[in-house]
């Protein structure tokens, strides 16, 4: 009788050979039919669905440019098997971009929200690594960057779905995990990293042997957002550590055209693929959009009335700030509208955020959210997107409304605009391609006013009172911070009526408004010429004035940008939060030489004078010398530091290469000898998953998350952990 071990080993060898053959075929097929640079595959006539696929009788290959079905693409059987459980026909962006991305080109892809951009980058990533026969010992082969944790989670799930039959490993690296140590140990054995910028940078800076010098492919989802000012520090630091020779893919519904941005990424002759550029509308066709003029003090009553009259709809409501979200959620919950309510914002714990995200995927409910939910998220079947507060600009509008009417489904959206914000409507109308939006007057007769109810709630619950004040202040601050002054004008807002509409007994004091009013009165007394016709401050003056107050305002309630999610950002140079208690502490972040010293009388000694002997007359001369020496020392240290770093990197690289070679040899030996490891054959000959997936949440969090995860065909966290351990053990033994 034949030894079962030999049988297994033969099967494995066979599989490896057939993989090698498949890869050779794919390489030749892709090479034979790749589209010209700059050409649009959508312009090619699609081959009929029944046409032969792959190698043809005459030795050539079937054409794939212009094809409509995933099965007609030059991609591995494993990817095809992963796809066919849900996807058959390609969407336009997929048809247009895949022939280019599979050929290894850099691509900037733009297509409307909900049009299937995710698969347009997941497929080339899997294929690139598969065709390179990427294994665990090869380390990080692909990095995908997402602006938010929820989106990263969603991309990760889609990777697991489509990549089910591949033996690549993927990890989700997002902020919010208390213990990153475990992650650090494993991160080098992962092939695909799906991450938010902050967390990735943290690993780059802190994980001792983090290596991505072999990176094959970099993807930025929501690329324009990743490249905008909010992530500049992180993204520049990340890019500087990536090898230049790589494939880069950028996708978004509102693509960046800034040459500067693209230069930062050192793209090589990128293909610009914009499938909806000639489209009549910039937003999905099945999306009905209206704008409604609503005075500030009626917004909440209007929202309440809207929810009450749409109790069977799934509604996503966008507000400007975390505190507003909290306030509206908490008060509306107490008023019991008759539909489940949820809230999502950047100040929530990661585990709760993920749970809310998943629940909203499944349940008909109302979700109040900041812009953390505005990009990329694929909530199924959202009926209404309500923008209670005006978006900061047109891309923000497009992404928010894009949470509904996704892929083939329908959706509606309503934008609330203050009378002073109507300019936004005109701007939306002027966009090319068009945003088909209609302006309606609010029907206030059917509106149920809730300010009375809110004020009794606030009297009863002091915490709600605090929330209301917070909502009030942060909203005004958000308006103040907006860049587009044609739309957002703080001084046109009916502040007292607004406070009353939140149920507040008095208008809270907001320093920047009071000072403005005071200054206004003063200047009215002196001269009129400094003010505009409406009595407001001239723009430049106002800017200075507001900037000056920025620091005076001690209540730092706001994210970096008005609509930016705060990411865990341990790499930031300055601490984001102020310490709560004033403890005597050595601030290690303070720039050198700025420590304040006092003499015996309590006078401040200038920084360098403290070093000098003040008894002598030549203090200045000596000071100069001290300074000179100090500079020289600093320079030397810098230089030495640089050298050390280079040396350290080199050593690490050598070490890793050695390790890699060893691991690769061992893997091949294992495959040859069949040492009866955990890998097993299934009937189809497809190996059982040897993947190593992990989430970056803490363990108890993971348990809770099990209940609320997206329903994809995935191994449980426990299984993933077990697999990871097995794999690691087998590598270290
Ligand atoms: P985008 O990133 O362009 O906003 P997504 O990639 O999130 O869009 O896709 C939107 C929805 O369409 C998802 O639910 C996805 O599963 C679905 N989808 C994508 N491609 C296809 C396809 N080829 N066939 C059917 N559904 C698809
Ligand atoms: Mg997307």
From TrEMBL:
Residues 648-665 have a biased composition (Basic residues). GO terms for molecular function: ATP binding; hydrolase activity; RNA binding; RNA helicase activity. Residues 523-533, 669-683 have a biased composition (Acidic residues). Residues 534-544, 635-647 have a biased composition (Basic and acidic residues). Residues 295-448 form the Helicase C-terminal domain. Residues 98-273 form the Helicase ATP-binding domain. Belongs to the DEAD box helicase family. Keywords: ATP-binding, Helicase, Hydrolase, Nucleotide-binding, RNA-binding. It comes from Dioscorea cayennensis subsp. rotundata (White Guinea yam). Its EC number is 3.6.4.13. Residues 31-55, 513-544, 635-709 are annotated as: Disordered. RNA helicase. The Q motif is unique to and characteristic of the DEAD box family of RNA helicases and controls ATP binding and hydrolysis. This is ATP-dependent RNA helicase. The keyword Phosphoprotein does not apply. The gene is LOC120267664. The keyword DNA repair does not apply. SMART domains: DEXDc, DUF4217, HELICc. Pfam families: CTE_SPB4 (PF13959), DEAD (PF00270), Helicase_C (PF00271). It catalyses: ATP + H2O = ADP + phosphate + H(+). It is an enzyme of class 3 (hydrolase).
